[in-house]
Write a structure and sequence with these properties.
about 170 residues; alpha+beta; 3-stranded antiparallel beta sheet; 3 helices; 6 strands; about 45% helix; rod-shaped; binds zinc ion
């Protein structure tokens, strides 16, 4: 919070109050008019400082809300990512597969490594190319070539061995 905005509001109100105190001593209409103008300007200035302080406070509340949301989402992803393990299902191809022990009865699936690094989970979908099948990320649009003619149903992480027996023979 910018304290000068609060100080500006207080100073403006004090100035308005001082001007008002002097009203009783005024002798002419012209003097009154001058004082009214001074008073209006002091009130406007106080009002403007108060509005700025208010806007700044609202902006800070919004910023705090957004940060809290971001922290919640990061914490959630930190838990979620533990459910996946890096596997090498085919030669030259690395991805994250769901661990059976933390599957919560979800079927086996593979997720995008790029999205994983970016802090989100995107399930890879098979897509047929002219010569071979590839896996496609619907979020970041990454395409991962598998060197397979057909992609087999995904397996749980522990079921992928280091052997690349699924390659085209
Ligand atoms: Zn992706």
């Amino acid at each position: 919070m910018d304290m000068s905005l609060i100080q500006g509001t207080v100073a403006g109100l004090k100035a308005a109050s001082d001007i008002a105190k002097g009203f009783l001593e005024l002798k002419s209409i012209a003097d009154v008019q001058t004082k009214v103008i001074d008073l209006q300007s002091a009130i406007l200035s106080a009002q403007s400082s108060a509005l700025s302080a208010n806007a700044e406070q609202s902006a800070m509340i919004e910023k705090i809300r957004a940060l809290k949301e971001e922290i919640t989402s990061i914490k959630k992803w930190e838990e979620e990512k533990k459910r996946y393990a890096l596997v090498n299902p085919w030669s030259g191809f690395v991805t994250y597969a769901l661990k059976k022990e933390s599957s919560n009865s979800e079927p086996p699936h593979l997720i995008c490594t790029k999205c994983y690094e970016d802090g989100r989970k995107s399930i890879l979908n098979p897509k047929k190319n002219t010569s071979h099948a590839l896996l496609y990320c619907p979020v970041c649009k990454a395409e991962m070539h598998t060197r397979l003619v057909v992609i087999h149903t995904a397996k749980y992480a522990h079921e992928y061995s280091s052997k690349t027996h699924e390659e085209i023979k």
